[in-house]
Design a protein that fits this description.
The protein contains one helix and no strands. By secondary structure, it is mainly α. The termini are far apart.
């Protein structure tokens, strides 16, 4: 019976350590993601600034292409 309690305690300890590491990893991923988007934003600003200094016109934002709409096909037209 003592062996079972020892195994249970060890499993609980391992689970707590794994949970702590997972939380740290999630926080690190969140931090890296935030840093990535800040860097991407700063890179875009710097690129526009360099284009303005070089006398080039920054590219205008193009409107997105319209999505094709799916047409309604009645089941009666699918009969053979």
């Amino acid at each position: 019976m003592t062996l079972l309690w020892f195994v249970t305690g060890a499993a609980l300890l391992v689970a707590l350590v794994a949970w702590r590491q997972a939380r740290k990893a999630a926080q690190r991923i969140e931090q890296l993601s935030q840093m990535y988007w800040e860097l991407k934003y700063q890179h875009g600003e710097l690129r526009v600034k360099m284009q303005r200094q070089a006398g080039e016109e920054p590219p205008a934002a193009q409107p997105p292409e319209p999505r094709p709409t799916d047409g309604f096909v009645p089941l009666s037209s699918l009969k053979r």
